[in-house]
Design brief:
Elements: H1 2-24, H2 36-49, H3 53-79, H4 84-92, H5 96-101, H6 112-124, H7 128-149
Amino acid sequence: MKPVVLLIAWILAAPAAFAQQQSQQPAQQARPVQSFEDLRAREAQSRIKSMTRAQQQGYLDAMADLDKLRGKLAEAWQGMGMSPEGARLVADAYDPDLAARSHHTTLRGKSDQEIAQLMQDALRQKKYLKANQLLIDYQRQKLALNEVSTPQTLGNSGL
């Protein structure tokens, strides 16, 4: 009967002992996130630490490709009359993973002016991901139309 009493006393005392132990530990002060870029850098470092070497290299290559893509987007925005700073701001908002999961506005049957208006609306509303995706989709549509209008030859295939 004595072990049962000890067990009950221990169960009743456990929450108080836990609370006392927690109060004795120094409180860690969380450093506020200074910027979105700091947060991004920390997330990237965390991901890299948890990857194998091959995965790390693939991740770093993808990040380099993303930088190139964003650079090309910034060039395209500048070509449309945007300032270099504004173009970089808009282009840096592009995230291909998020864009792939997001709704894409169809451009089928829309004139260049209608598409330009959609882009301007997205920029005005600071929906930079949407504006970037509209620009990419527009460029893809133009390339597809050029391929259709240009006759393709079979070359020297002998057919």
